[in-house]
Design brief:
Strand order of the largest sheet: 1-2-3-12-13-14-15-16
Strand content: 15-25%
Helix content: 25-40%
Length: 478
């Protein structure tokens, strides 16, 4: 069974060796993530070029995502690099502190004293340390340690319940955005958007950079990780202004609490699917495989449940960036996805109830799904320029692979995040009959179909001219 769910792997020291990266792509990586919270622009450019080179060698167009750091609010540095906070102790967050000690530490976000008030809970080091605000005096936030633990240089700070005013795009992010688009990345992930306004601003900057560097449109991904972002109006506006969303469970869990995240994950995926946007589920999916060659059973269930929720992609972070077993992790994740997909419910008949389609291309796309399902077709083939037709198809579960055949490399890469879509390069003829033979030959050559199989084909007529998909054809392979 082909794997429908896509795998995104973060690049880092463990995966920048060309042979390791090649094995990772062979094992199933569809998109690589470059984390702009670490490394220089030169580092990312070298990794970008390596991915493109290996992709070309393997004949598989792997998408590249630039993940911007965003307004990560952190403590400063300590004179001894690390301290141990004890419950009940007093501790000061001081904007003007240069080197921290057991009593106080500096802040990289100078506006934090204006954003907090007495009784607020501040969660540090991914929630391992909890401070309760006692008072704010000028540049100092006086707190009491509610939950003790280790605290070292540059650890993050979140406020329980959200509400910090830091903008989604910092000056660093704007510089990184321009550099990423100049490289030619396919996806741009925006950290900590509060609402659709943040994403609309990111879109404006991205479009300006694309025009400046004379490159194609990059797809934007909203990382939903703020408490404010999960409010219904804010979330719907974020989805509307983005090409896709990431269920960024790390910071989100810190702000809203761990127990709330599973239900939020399901809700976000459902809303994005209804809006024809793709979804990525991320954070600690195979965390134990940073140091172990096999996942825990809880991790297997976590990945499988994300697949059953309908996520388009599952993402690895430290597991592939710094872990000991990046290739084994991808193989294990791929196996879990395939097994979970066997339980996917096909609900096309009910999906289309009470729906009205006003666009011809969308009607053809969804008609192809219905036809392929009821004729037990072996494949759906979509001749596409922009990728819109296979995207609409991918929003519904169907145990029939969708092959997106396009002459545009940018479209191949842009489709690398969509569930059940297999992008292929095909410079098809403008002559209709010849084009159909080319499609059939391509699918037979790669082993997707054989003689006697049924293929449902969508295309636009006349062939080779701009315009929406308007034709559906049933092919019996000869």
């Amino acid at each position: 069974m082909l794997r429908a769910t896509k795998i995104i792997a973060t690049l880092g020291p463990a995966s920048e060796n060309p042979e390791v990266l090649k094995e990772m792509i062979i094992a199933g990586v569809d998109v690589v993530r470059m984390n702009f919270s670490h490394g220089t622009i030169a580092d990312h450019k070298a990794r970008h070029d390596l991915v493109r080179s290996i992709s070309a060698e393997l004949g598989k167009e792997v998408g590249i995502m630039a993940d911007l750091q965003g307004p990560k609010i952190r403590v400063g540095k300590f004179a001894e690099n690390k301290i141990q906070l004890k419950e009940g102790a007093d501790f000061i967050l001081d904007v003007n502190c240069q080197l921290g000690n057991q009593e106080r530490v500096g802040l990289d976000y100078k506006e934090l004293p204006s954003d907090v008030q007495p009784n607020d809970r501040l969660l540090l080091n991914d929630g391992l340390v909890v401070l309760r605000v006692q008072s704010v005096k000028g540049s100092e936030i006086l707190t009491r340690v509610e939950q003790g633990g280790p605290l070292s240089n540059n650890k993050g700070i979140n406020r329980a319940g959200g509400g910090l005013t830091a903008p989604a795009l910092t000056e660093k992010d704007i510089v990184d955005l321009d550099a990423a688009i100049a490289m030619g990345v396919d996806f741009l992930a925006i950290s900590f958007p509060k609402d659709g306004t943040d994403m609309a601003y990111a879109r404006k900057l991205a479009d300006a950079a694309s025009a400046k560097h004379k490159v194609g449109r990059v797809k934007t991904i909203a990382k939903v990780e703020r408490a404010e972002a999960i409010e219904t109006d804010a979330l719907l506006s974020i989805i509307r202004e983005s090409d896709g969303i990431m269920v960024a469970r790390g910071d989100l869990a810190i702000e809203v609490g761990n127990p709330a995240v599973p239900a939020l994950q399901k809700r976000m995926i459902t809303l994005a699917l209804e809006a024809d946007k793709f979804t990525i589920t991320a954070t600690q999916m195979m965390e134990s495989m940073i140091n172990a060659p096999v996942p825990t059973r809880a991790e297997v269930s976590d990945v499988a449940n994300a697949v059953l929720d309908g996520t388009d992609a599952v993402m690895l972070s430290a597991e592939s960036a710094a872990g000991m077993y990046p290739v084994q992790t991808i193989k294990a994740m791929a196996e879990i996805c395939v097994e979970a997909e066997k339980s996917d419910n096909v609900k096309l008949d009910t999906d289309f109830l009470d729906q009205t389609f006003t666009r011809i291309d969308q009607t053809i796309a969804l008609g192809a799904l219905f036809t392929a399902h009821h004729l037990n077709a072996k494949a759906i083939a979509a001749l596409t320029d922009s990728g819109s037709t296979p995207i609409w198809m991918s929003r519904h579960n169907i145990h029939v692979p969708i092959y997106a055949l396009t002459s545009k490399i940018s479209t191949q890469r842009a489709l690398s995040t969509y569930r059940n879509v297999i992008p292929l390069s095909l410079n098809y003829s403008k002559d209709r009959e010849t084009a159909l033979k080319e499609v059939e030959s391509c699918l037979k050559k790669m082993g997707a179909v054989k003689e006697g199989d049924t293929v449902v084909l969508t295309s636009g007529e006349p062939m080779g001219e701009p315009g929406g998909t308007n034709t559906l054809k049933i092919i019996h392979v000869k």
